[in-house]
Amino acid sequence: MARRESGRSHGDLRTADTRAKVKDDYRPSRDEILRYIAENPDRSGKRDIAKAFALRGEDRIWLKDVLRDLQDEGLLTKERKRLARVGSLAHVAVLDIFGRDADGVLLAHPTEAVGNGEPPVIAIRVSRGGGGPTPGIGDRVLAKTFPTDDATGPAYTGRVMKIFEKRTDAVLGVFRVLQDGTFRIEPVERRQPELVVDKEFQNGAKNGDLVEVEPARASRYGLPRAKVLAVLGSLTSEKAVSMIAIHAHDIPHIFPADVTAEAEAVKPATLAGREDWRELPLVTIDPADAKDHDDAVFATADPDEKNPGGVVVTVAIADVAAYVRYGTALDREALKRGNSVYFPDRVVPMLPERISNDLCSLREGQDRPALAVRMTFSADGRKLRHSFHRIMMKSAAKLAYRQAQTAIDGAPDDKTGPILDTVMKPLWDAYAVVKRGRETRQPLELELPERKILLKEDGTVDRVVVPERLDAHKLIEEFMIQANVAAAETLEAKRQALVYRIHDAPSLAKQESLREFLQTLGLSLARGAQMRPNQFNGILDRVRGADHEGLVNEVVLRTQMQAEYSPSNIGHFGLNLKRYAHFTSPIRRYADLIVHRGLIAALGFGAGGLTQDEAERLEEVSALISATERRAMAAERDTVDRLIAAYLAERVDDCFDARISGVTKSGLFVQLPQYGADGFIPVSSLGGDYYIYDETARSLFGERTGKGYQLADRVEVRLIEVAPMAGAMRFEMLTDPKPLPGSKRSFHKAKGRARASQSRPGSRGRRR
């Protein structure tokens, strides 16, 4: 059908608030659609756009085609169920306020990158009535953002929803004793100045200690002075390294006095209003070093004759909502933290130990309150039904993963032997059934080895290991996934507000990039706006055992979007589930606590349910806990990088087997598989040729020889330089470049693209 475009100017654009009657044959131009989406980020779904332009019937089909074209052209991207301009700022974003303009209006940048250019500037709107939060320079805020029409001013305005807690005046540094006997603080962050410490303020610090100090007011002459507040440990200890990450990422790690007092005052839950399940032999299966246990499982064959070969699986989760009520000091602190943060030697918990390690830990042989879901599966692994219960339980056994697996493999011990036939084998029988359902569902199957750092008694690195992936791990993982699905289904059926765990499908731009890359290897990827995980699995199956298996796995991984929390559901692409919510870890994730409260309210389970006020704030809360999750991941990653860099600092000039983990115009990132550590090889050090960056093939190739290096290549490198405090390492390439996969035609096309890129203004190449 031919498109009928409007010749109206942008000034005639209709928004949802200024809609006017139009002729039946009116269709907006592409520019009008793009402008509407930019100006209405909170009303940019297909239905919203159709409503704004009064499109009906066939015109809605036409609109769907236009929006798909705009996505294919890279002008639009899909975020949840809304469309957004590529490179635009999220409607709810975390911002850092950095200054004011000439009129005194506060200005901010987003904390996370937006597109590839300079970060956009956001003008912060402050409520004139004084009803909302009042931020200032240096604050980090959660805000709703709106694009502006001012070509000369800020690209967005922002309305502050929440101000994050301000950092204290305390800073981190390394205590140094100079040759003349005076004391200095060497800053951890480059922007901090050196500080002088007088002897009376040394507080027991020794040379090389990582310390927390309070700077005094800068004097007119000389360096500013400071006093040592706390000695965090030697720079070589892991405790010090994780503390750097805690401070660098503003992670709250000390519970305020009112939170601790509130936790200590909590009384254990009673049986009142609960089902008594204490005779059911639920067991916990966790890592051997786990200090809290928030989930327990049990399974049995389904006695229903109408379900031959079926099973009944029970998952019980600690009832945190019984103790952490909305609006209390405990709740406010848990929301501020968002989740627990895990370092190699410590955990920064979301909740005080009185709650997480005591009252809500499903300890063996002790009465504990829980929310339980009982799920019935058919023999082919389909879930037939489920029901939720608020219970009192008593764990029959605390088991470690390896201990449980060893029992099933034929070597039970004193604890697993007595329950082998009654508890352990039925669990594994049920897993075999549920696994069939997983195989039918076909979630994305990326086997990514998870490395674990083992420490010595002094906190330094002993070694890095890759723990074996056991069926015991997979059993618990799949049972938890099914419990999470059941929670989302129940809350939807009850029309109860909730926070979903969502994972969007790869954008069309990422799909096309993957398609071009696969073509260089002689592989194809079918086109289509709605890709499914099994299509990616098919690619992975085709390269299994091939030389480029690691490369393809890495590129497929990087094609995926990041999972997040949202009150709006788009499903979970990676798990191939239509609805999914985190329910199984309320001790360490605030999202799960919200889901528990929703179930309590929806099913009439008594006190501790989701309130109306809380339900109305779920968009804000979702953005906040998504941000704290990313913060935790960054802090954990930085700590591992610093630990490994310190561990390898004494091995400069040693040679290592490595794998190329990243390719850029500037050089190659390499990872040492035995340590999980990353370092960099500058393109200037490769030598022997002029190297060109091919983004499609994820490679650097020589202009003269056509040989080069590609993502996931296995290479040998020499360690040249280490900066332990920054967690940075620089390497030298020892492996000669190789002919790259793909045809000569692909090579010449990449070379032509690279030359065209380098001929554009602002681009520059390097001859080596």
Automatic annotation (TrEMBL):
Keywords: Cytoplasm, Exonuclease, Hydrolase, Nuclease, RNA-binding
Basic residues biased stretches: 745-754
Cellular compartments annotated: Cytoplasm
GO CC list: cytosol
Domain S1 motif: 653-734
Coiled-coil intervals, chain numbering: none
Ribonucleoprotein as UniProt keyword: no
Keyword Membrane: no
EC numbers, comma separated: 3.1.13.1
GO biological process, one term: mRNA catabolic process
Molecular function, one GO term: RNA binding
Chief localization: cytoplasm
Pfam family membership, one: S1
Residue span of region Disordered: 1-24, 734-768
SUPFAM superfamilies found in the cross-reference section: Nucleic acid-binding proteins (SSF50249)
Domain of life: Bacteria
Main function: 3'-5' exoribonuclease that releases 5'-nucleoside monophosphates and is involved in maturation of structured RNAs.
Classification via HAMAP family: RNase_R
UniProt similarity note: Belongs to the RNR ribonuclease family. RNase R subfamily.
Official protein name in the record: Ribonuclease R
